[in-house]
Amino acid sequence: MDWDLYLLLVPGLLFFLLFKYVPMWGVVIAFQDYSPFKGVLHSDWVGLKHFVNLFTYDKFWAIFRNTILISFYNLIFFFPAPILLALLLNELRISWFKRSVQTIIYLPHFISWVVVAGMTYLILGTQGGIVNELIQASGGEKVAFLTTPEYFRTLIVSQSIWKEAGWGTIIFLAALSGVDTQLYEAAIVDGAGRWRQLWHITLPAIRSTILILLILRLGNILDVGFEHIFLMLNSTVNSVGDVFETYVYREGLIGGKFSYTTAVGLFKSLVGLVLVAGANWLSQKFGEEGVF
C-alpha cells in the first residue's frame, strides 16, 4: 500500500475531525439551560423549551422573512452572475485580454467586507458621498441610500455581486474547459451560430455543475453572511435587515443566551438539510446526478 499517500490525508482528516465533527456534539446544549460553570454534562435539560421560545418570539417571522428575502434575491440575481461572466469570458479569444479581465474581476474577492462597507459609505453616503455630491451638483436633492429601507436589500445583493461574482466564475470556467471542442466544430459545420452553440453545447455541458452548486446553495438559504449584514445595518433599516445572524449575535454573544442561540442555529441547519435533500431528490427525479 502507498502509505505515504495516505499520510497526506491525515492533516485534512484531523481538520474535519477536530473542527467539524467534534463541535457537532455541542448541539446538545440547545436542549439544556447551559451554564459554563456546570458544563455540558451537568447543565439542566429543558427539552424543546428554547425552540418553543424561538417560534413564539414576536419578531420571529419578521427575522425569518428578512433572511429568506435576502437569500431569495441572492439566488435570483447573484447566483446566475458567475455563470454569465464565465460564459462571456469563455467567448473571448484573445488570451492576454481574457487573463487580464479574469484578474480584475477576481480582485474584489480579496477585499474584506469592512473595506467594502467603507467604500459604500464613501460612494453613497449623504455626507460627502460621491454619488450624492454629483446629484446635488446637478441640481437634485440628496438620496439617503444607506438609511432608506427600500434600498437596503438591493444594496446588499449588489455588493455581493461586485465582490464575489468574479471569484465564482472559477468553477464554471473549469467546467467549460472540459467541453469537447469537436462538438463546436461539428456545430459550425452544421451551420450553428454562437447562440445555438451556447444553447445546445455549452449550457448542457455545465448543467450538472450548475445544479450541484444550486443544491448546495439551498443548504445555506438561512445564512446570508453576518459580517456583511452587520456592517451595513443601522437603526433605520433594521426592520428589513435584521436576520438570524444578527439576532444570534445580539442574543448569544451579547445576551449570553448560549442554549437559545444554539437552538436557532440547529433550526437553520435542519431547514437547510430539508431543502438540500428535497432539491437533490428532485434533481435525481429529472435524470440528473445530484449531490448524493
UniProtKB/TrEMBL annotation:
Belongs to the binding-protein-dependent transport system permease family. Residues 64-279 form the ABC transmembrane type-1 domain. It is found in: Cell membrane; Membrane. One of its GO terms (biological process) is transmembrane transport. Keywords: Membrane, Transmembrane, Transmembrane helix, Transport. It is a multi-pass membrane protein. It comes from Paenibacillus aurantius. The chain crosses the membrane at residues 68-92, 104-124. This is ABC transporter permease subunit.
